[in-house]
Amino acid sequence: MTGELSPIDKAKFVAAKRAAEFVEDGMRVGLGTGSTAAWLVRCLGDMVEKDGLKIKGVPTSSRTAELAHDVGIDVISLDEAKWLDMTIDGADEFDGELNLIKGGGGALLQEKIVATASDQMIVIADVGKEVERLGSFPLPVEIIPFGWQTTKALLEETLVSMDVLGRDTTLRMNGSVPYITDEGNHILDLHLGRIGNARQMSLVLNQIPGVVENGLFIDICDKVVVGYGDGKVEIRDINAGTVEIDRLDFVDDDNLFTDLMD
User: Fold this and answer.
1) Is the distance from CB of 29 to CB of 59 less than 8 angstroms?
2) Catalytic annotation, pick one of 111, 156, 213, 244
3) What is the rounded distance in angstroms from the CA atom of residue 146 to the CA atom of residue 212?
4) CA 125 to CA 228: how far, in whole Å?
5) What per-residue string of b and e applies to 19-37 under the rule 16 or more CB within 10 Å gives b?
6) Judging by beta carbons within 10 Å of its beta carbon (0-12, 13-18, 19+), is residue 238 exposed, middle or buried?
7) Helices (H), strands (E): how many in the chain?
C-alpha cells in the first residue's frame, strides 16, 4: 500500500505522523486545514481509536471539522476552548526564520486566529515547501465582498511602493463564481514572486479598508516538522535553535495509508 503513495505524499505523511507525537492526553489542539493537515487529523484519529488518546480538537475550517468528527476526535469551538496547548497546521511556504505563507486552502483567517490562541504552533510540511525568501507562492488576502474591486485597486496601488517582483492580483474563483470562505468573504491572490520585507508587507496590507487578514504568518510558528519521501524527518525549533533528525519506517499493512488515500 505504501508503494502507491507518491514521494510527496510519503513526505506529508511522515511529517504529520511525527508531529502527532507531540500531542498528549488532555490537550486542546488546533487542527489545521489542507492536504498535509488532513494527514495529521487521520493520524490523531488513529491514536484516539487505538491508543485511547483523549484530546479536544479545534478545527480551522468546516472541512477539517467534518474530517475530525469522522475519525472520532472530540471537536469543540475556540470559544469553548478559550486557549489551546498547540496548533498543528500545514504551510504553503516557510523560510529559515519559520515565517509562513498560508491560505492556499482558503482558511487563513481561522488558521491565524487559532494559531495565535495557542501556546505553540507546529507546522508540518514536505521539504518542497521550504524557500529562501517568501513570495513564490501567491499570497492570499481575505477581503469582504462589499466593494471588493475598490479594495483590489487600493491593494494594487499599495504594492507599487513595496519590495516585490510582481504585482498581479487575481480574485480566487470556484469555477465560474468567486471563492467564498467559511466567513463569507472573498480571497485575492497576490502574485508577488518575492517579498522583500514580509513583516512590513503584513502590517501594510491589514491597514487597507476591506482587507480582513492576510496569509503571512510572522513570528507565529515555533517548530516545523519537515518530511522527506524516504521517511526522513527534520524537526526545527526556532526558539531552542535546534534541529533534530528522525526517521519513520513505513508499514505496508498500516490502514492509515488506505484511509488517507480515500
Assistant:
1) no
2) 111
3) 12
4) 9
5) bbebbeeebbbbbbbbebb
6) middle
7) 8, 17
Task: Report the residue count for the chain.
Answer: 262
Q: Which amino acid is at 189?
A: D
Burial class (CB in 10 A: 0-12, 13-18, 19+), 91: buried
Tens digit of each residue's pLDDT (9 = 90 or more) over 230-254:
999 999 999 999 999 999 886 544 5
First to last CA, the chain: 12
Q: What is the pLDDT of residues 111-144, one digit of tens each?
A: 999 999 999 999 999 999 999 999 999 999 999 9
For 159, other C-beta atoms within 10 Å of its C-beta total: 19
Our answer to whether residue 183 is catalytic in this structure is no
Contact status, residue 10 vs residue 229, Cβ threshold 8 Å: yes
pTM: 0.94
DSSP assigned state of 129: G
Secondary structure of residue 182 in the 3-state scheme: coil
